[in-house]
Specification:
By secondary structure, the chain is an alpha/beta fold. It is about 30% helix and about 15% strand.
């Protein structure tokens, strides 16, 4: 039995299948963890959703910002973008079943030895707080009130965590931290604008969320995707797995037990 964690698929279904063939993935024995953004810019988002859903308990999925955006498009809150090659999902006979399955997925998934989310964990949270905030949003997404949350999640404020945050402000901060965060200001405020590699950001005003000096140490490493410009990242505290397949990079997977990385270049079938 093996545990594999893979970065953002974004509809790069052929590369995913090649990667799984290379590692001889066995769905009846192995578990495959997906770090969010199953859909969006790649050519086969529909095939990706169907495949991951078909894995059942062999797949562990967290929601990414593009997955949430897909739900917003389904509700008519946003229009489909040509660059998001998700139109076939909305013409599919199993569209509703796929969307209902997607919104049942968590923001935070936990293994005995690590936690996984799409963008990261707020530097102001310990693991207990992260679990609690994730559970609050997940409960709404699974309820009949989920359209209200999706319609109102689009905002960059509040950008700083306070224990007194409540209601929509609390949910927005939680969604932004788990699915959109990259850089933080020195005081812990989330920056939602900069997408550059850290080496191109000078002046010290912004720093990656995981390098903030005031960041609360967690008991487990955090595995995440989302930040293709990192081109992969590894430390004792965090492991970034988005290596930009959809942008012409590669799709990367980590075999947890062996701590071995496997990659497939974009365009490989």
């Amino acid at each position: 039995m093996a545990t594999y964690i893979v970065g953002d698929i974004q509809g790069c279904f052929d590369e995913l299948q090649q990667l799984l063939s290379n590692i001889k993935f066995k769905p009846k024995k192995d578990t495959l963890w997906f770090a969010g953004d199953l859909v969006a810019r790649g050519p086969k988002s529909l095939e990706t959703l169907r495949f991951v859903q078909s894995l059942g308990e062999s797949a562990k999925v967290v929601l990414g910002n593009h997955d949430l955006h897909l739900l917003a498009v389904a509700l008519g809150i946003h229009k489909k973008k040509d660059k998001d090659k998700t139109a076939p999902i909305f013409d599919a006979p199993d569209k509703q079943a796929l969307l209902d399955w997607l919104r049942q997925q968590p923001l935070l998934a936990e293994h005995d030895e690590f936690v996984m989310c799409h963008a990261g964990i707020s530097p102001d949270w310990d693991l207990e707080q992260a679990r609690a905030c994730a559970a609050e949003v997940e409960a709404i997404l699974k309820s009949d009130d989920w359209p209200w949350l999706i319609e109102n999640m689009y905002a960059n404020q509040p950008d700083k965590w306070h224990n007194a945050l409540s209601g929509l402000e609390r949910y927005r901060y939680t969604i932004n931290a788990f699915t959109r965060m990259r850089f933080c200001f020195a005081d812990g405020r989330l920056d939602m604008a900069c997408k550059l590699p850290p080496k191109q950001v000078s002046g010290g005003e912004l720093m990656p969320w995981f390098k903030l000096p005031s960041r609360i140490a967690l008991e487990k490493p955090v595995l995440f995707g989302h930040w293709a410009a990192l081109e992969g990242y590894q430390s004792k505290e965090v492991i970034g797995l988005d290596t930009g397949c959809v942008w012409g990079g590669k799709l990367t997977l980590l075999h947890w037990e062996k701590q071995r990385y496997h990659s497939v270049a974009a365009g490989k079938k």
